[in-house]
Every structure is written in C-alpha cells, then in structure tokens.
Amino acid sequence: MISMNYLAHLLAARTDWPWPDSLPDGTRISRPGEGLLVVEPADAAFDLCLSSGIHGNETAPVELAARLLQAVLDGSLPARARILFAFGNPAALRSNKRYLDDDLNRLFGKPAEQSGSGPAAVRARELERAVEDFFAVSGSRWRLHYDLHTAIRGSQIEKFAIYPHPGDQAFDPAEIARLAACGIEAVLLQSKPSPTFSYFSRQHCGAHGFTLELGKARPFGQNQAVNLDLLEAELRRLIGGEKRDYAVSTAHPKLFRVAREVIKQTDAFKLHLADAVENFTELAPGYVLAEDGDERFVVAEQGARIVFPNSKVKNGLRAGLLVVPAVL
Ligand SMILES: O=C(O)CCC(=O)N[C@@H](CCC(=O)O)C(=O)O
Ligand SMILES: [Zn+2]
C-alpha cells in the first residue's frame, strides 16, 4: 500500500518518484512528462485519456482525476483499460490561475508561428505528443478522451459537454447517452475547428473527444457544491474495463449547436453582459451583445443562449459562444 498522495507530490513540484513503475498485478506505469502518467494493464479493453487542470484554477476535475489515479496506484481500483492521466498545466495549478502566459486550451493543433514558443506553447506540444503517442498504439481499440474543466461563471445548466465533431465526422448518439449517464445535462455540438485539447484528440487521434464542464471554478478543497458522483462512477467502471452501452434517448441531455463564436478583435471590445449573467442565459434577437470599434455583434438567432462570455481574453480569441437548440 502506497500512502503518498500524487496530487500533493505534483503541486509540490517534486521530481522524485516514490511509486513503483509496475503494480503487483503487472500493470505498468510510465511517465512521459510532468503530470503525465500512462497506466498499462496486460490486457487492456480500450484506451482512455483523462485530462484535467488544463486551466489551473479549475480544481474539481483535478481532485477527481487524482482520486482515481490514487486508487489505481494503491491497488483499490485495478485498471483494465489503458489510461493516460494528463494533469494539463501544473505551473498554473500551483498558482490557482487559469493560465500564466497564454491560455493552453487555445494552442492545440496550432502551427508554431501562431502559438509562439512560450511555456504554454511548449506544454501544448508536450500534451499533443503524449496523447498522439498514447493513442498511436491503440490499434482497433475504442478510444475515449474526456477533458475535464469547470466554468468561470455560474450556469443555468451546471454540467455540460462540448462535443467537437468536425464537419466531415458524424457525432455518435451512444456517446451522448454515455455523457447523460455521467450526469451531463447538455451537450454543445461544435462542428467548426477549435484550438482545444478535445478537438485535437478527436481530429488527430481518432478518439471520441469531449470537453466536460463540471460546475463553477473554485480553489482546491472548495468543490463540495458540485456533485460528480455519476461521472466518477462511470469513470471507475471505464478504468475497470467495463464499457457500458447506454440506450440512446432524444429527451436527455439537452442538445445545442454552436451557432456563432464571438471573437474579440481589439482592445476596444466591450461585452454588454453583467458579470452575474450565467451561462445559457437566453438573449433576444436584436440584442447588441458586444461592440468592437465599429463592429457590432447583434443576436440574430431565435432561442440563442450565451456560453462562456468573457471580455478579458486576449485579442483574436473567443469571447463567448452563441448556441441554439438542436436535435439529434
Ligand atoms: O467559463 C469559461 O469561460 C471557460 C471554461 C473553460 O475553460 N471552457 C473550455 C471549453 C473548451 C471547449 O470549447 O471545448 C475553454 O474555454 O477552454
Ligand atoms: Zn477550462
């Protein structure tokens, strides 16, 4: 039994490795980089990447992933799937900040001339390599990537997912049903390219990739308000090699598609939403959502709702998503 806590070890930036590189049942543990652990049982049913802490102030997912990893390491949750645990941004986690130099989740799949060469860009390349190497040996095995986040604002829908399904790829109702079983109440279908980790694994690694939003961002130790029991139960089953096939239902979760992205172009950008406006607040057609110099961003869609409004992003980046109801 190993009693040391992996998360405390990571947050303390320790470089020693007090765990064995293989568990008593033969499961191998390898570490392709800081905050990256690959768990490989002898007979893997499928391959699962579980990432968290891509944003350093989003701690509930990190606590959940660390708890699951700890259970694998101490033998109480024997792994029967190959798993890549990726704690995305250890430096930002140590500072409880969304990001330090650049937003990591805007740097995936970007050429060097666009992403620069700062620490976040370097980390994005390391994460890309880790997930590509991980799935490169999956062969015909099923591949799943859940990238776990929490949101800056409160939300009318507490737990939701973003489902990147690039234009040429179909979305999978069975995976939406799995998300519902995880307690996910809404799914946003995103067909346009996105510089996010889940889009990258979907587009470049053949994985079912999803971003999961799990309540509001709070510091470590203050995440009791969000109930992740259903998600944790499904992840425990997946780690144990059990892949359930859930019945497809059109009633649940609610489906939306991303109608438009609001991009902040200049320092003059102004968002006409109070800080207290929650994710999924409906905006009436004609509402002037934002202004950016001479540009006005006017809501045109019926039933449009705003998600992730944020005027503090760097120029050129997404300052919000307008989503509209969708059907399967
Ligand atoms: O609350 C917010 O404004 C952001 C929460 C968050 O980090 N969300 C992810 C979503 C990624 C995606 O679109 O798949 C992000 O903004 O990176
Ligand atoms: Zn995030």
TrEMBL record:
Gene Ontology molecular function: any one: hydrolase activity, acting on ester bonds
Residues annotated as binding Zn(2+): 55, 58, 149
EC number(s) stated in the UniProt entry for this protein: 3.5.1.96
Active-site residues per Swiss-Prot or TrEMBL entry: 213
Pathway annotation: Amino-acid degradation; L-arginine degradation via AST pathway; L-glutamate and succinate from L-arginine: step 5/5
Catalytic activity: N-succinyl-L-glutamate + H2O = L-glutamate + succinate
Cofactor binding: number and manner: Binds 1 zinc ion per subunit.
Pfam families documented for this protein: AstE_AspA_cat (PF24827), AstE_AspA_hybrid (PF04952)
Swiss-Prot/TrEMBL GO biological process terms: L-arginine catabolic process to L-glutamate; L-arginine catabolic process to succinate
Residue ranges annotated for the Succinylglutamate desuccinylase/Aspartoacylase catalytic domain, each copy included: 47-239
Highest taxon above the source species: Bacteria
InterPro entries: AspA/AstE_fam, AstE_AspA_cat, Aste_AspA_hybrid_dom, SuccinylGlu_desuccinylase
Keyword set, alphabetical order: Arginine metabolism, Hydrolase, Metal-binding, Zinc
CDD domains listed in its UniProt record: M14_ASTE (cd03855)
UniProt domain AstE/AspA barrel-sandwich hybrid: residue ranges: 253-325
Cofactor: Zn(2+)
Biological role stated in the UniProt entry: Transforms N(2)-succinylglutamate into succinate and glutamate.
NCBIfam families registered for this protein in UniProt: arg_catab_astE, PRK05324.1
Membership in a protein family: Belongs to the AspA/AstE family. Succinylglutamate desuccinylase subfamily.
Name of the protein in question: Succinylglutamate desuccinylase
Species this chain originates from: Chitinimonas arctica
